[in-house]
């Protein structure tokens, strides 16, 4: 939780400096999510430093990022912190401001720290809470892309925050849960009666369980969540019936044409065994792959419609790909 400490600081700075509050919020959100360095509001910082010739703003940025208690508990990668602090120093020196000892001390500390293959990313929510996840630094590792959070999961979580009624008091099954960002957000804010995370890669399942515990779900509500190994090719109708899902969601599961047949088999079984609300969110990186998936839906007798409407931007991430959400349903026999 980002307690009242930063919220009070934000309000104080708002009164004193106007948009300084917005700058700090932007820095904090981008820092803990390890957003791209170019996305930080550096221009605003430069203008403030040039006008005031004071390092006060940089000191406040440090308090809400590297010196924040969340960073002590769930730190971003060493390389990212090194780049961030180096950029802060560059901007401070370019503006001709007095040196800030604490800034150089912070850089010296991370320079002397060994890089690791894992790091924490924390995604800040409107309430002030954070969903913190242990992620891999590399996009692909141990033969899977499931050890990092992808943009469709972030988008689906944002959509869920605006449509909480779809999940409230319902049993939700998530396919391809990955590291758990969407599911943890839904469990925290949408009050499902039960939430089933699922994946099939052993390393992803282990990390998923770790992240669920990191965010306190297992301890607080042991009956709310479960983690299931779900092999799309081997799952039986009996397993599906036992889950009895009211809502089924998935994010970034249509990225490889080789897995589409097994996904189609699973979706057909899910829709045949019950009448759940099925929502799939996809980052359309290759139109050919996504178009092929939609063609397979049609061949299987599964209709879909695109879910439209604006989605509130809650998390900082690069929105380069087209993201589309569809809802599935079987064809009505006349």
From TrEMBL:
Q: Which family does it belong to?
A: Belongs to the class I-like SAM-binding methyltransferase superfamily. EEF2KMT family.
SUPFAM superfamilies (alphabetical) = S-adenosyl-L-methionine-dependent methyltransferases (SSF53335)
* Record protein name field: Eukaryotic elongation factor 2 lysine methyltransferase
GO biological process terms on file: methylation
**Annotated FAM86 N-terminal domain residues:** 22-110
* Gene behind the chain: eef2kmt
The coiled-coil segments of this chain are: none
Q: Which UniProt keywords apply?
A: Methyltransferase, S-adenosyl-L-methionine, Transferase
Q: Which PANTHER family match?
A: HEPATOCELLULAR CARCINOMA-ASSOCIATED ANTIGEN (PTHR14614), PROTEIN-LYSINE N-METHYLTRANSFERASE EEF2KMT (PTHR14614:SF130)
Indicate yes or no for the key word GTP-binding: no
Q: Mention any Pfam family matching this sequence.
A: Methyltransf_16
**Gene Ontology terms: cellular component:** protein-containing complex
Question: Which InterPro entries does the annotation name?
Answer: FAM86_N, Methyltransf_16, SAM-dependent_MTases_sf
Gene Ontology MF terms: methyltransferase activity
Note whether Transferase occurs among the keywords: yes
């Amino acid at each position: 939780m980002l307690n009242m400490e930063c919220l009070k600081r934000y309000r104080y700075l708002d009164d004193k400096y106007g948009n300084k509050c917005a700058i700090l919020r932007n820095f904090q959100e981008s820092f803990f999510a390890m957003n791209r360095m170019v996305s930080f509001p550096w221009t605003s910082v430069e203008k403030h430093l040039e006008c005031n010739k004071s390092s006060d703003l940089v000191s406040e940025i440090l308090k809400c990022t590297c010196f924040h208690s969340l960073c002590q508990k769930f730190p971003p990668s060493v390389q990212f912190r090194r780049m961030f602090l180096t950029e802060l120093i560059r901007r401070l020196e370019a503006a001709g401001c007095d040196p800030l000892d604490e800034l150089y001390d912070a850089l010296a500390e991370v320079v002397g720290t060994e890089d690791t293959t894992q790091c924490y990313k924390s995604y800040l929510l409107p309430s002030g809470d954070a969903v913190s996840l242990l992620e891999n630094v590399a996009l692909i590792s141990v033969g899977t892309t499931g050890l990092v959070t992808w943009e469709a999961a972030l988008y689906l979580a944002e959509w869920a925050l605006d449509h909480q009624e779809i999940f409230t008091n319902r049993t939700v099954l998530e396919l391809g849960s990955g590291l758990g960002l969407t599911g943890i957000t839904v469990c925290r804010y949408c009050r499902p009666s039960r939430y089933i995370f699922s994946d099939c890669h052993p390393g992803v399942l282990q990390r998923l369980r770790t992240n669920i515990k990191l965010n306190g779900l297992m301890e607080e509500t042991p009956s709310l969540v479960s983690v299931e190994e779900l092999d799309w090719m081997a799952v039986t109708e009996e397993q599906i019936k036992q889950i009895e899902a009211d809502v089924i969601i998935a994010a970034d599961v249509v990225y490889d044409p080789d897995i589409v047949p097994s996904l189609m088999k699973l979706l057909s079984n899910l829709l045949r065994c019950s009448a759940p609300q099925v929502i799939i969110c996809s980052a359309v990186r290759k139109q050919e792959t996504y178009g092929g998936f939609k063609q397979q839906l049609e061949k299987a007798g599964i209709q879909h419609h695109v879910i439209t409407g604006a989605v509130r931007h809650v998390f900082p991430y690069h929105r380069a790909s087209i993201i589309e959400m569809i809802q599935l349903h079987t064809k009505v026999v006349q």
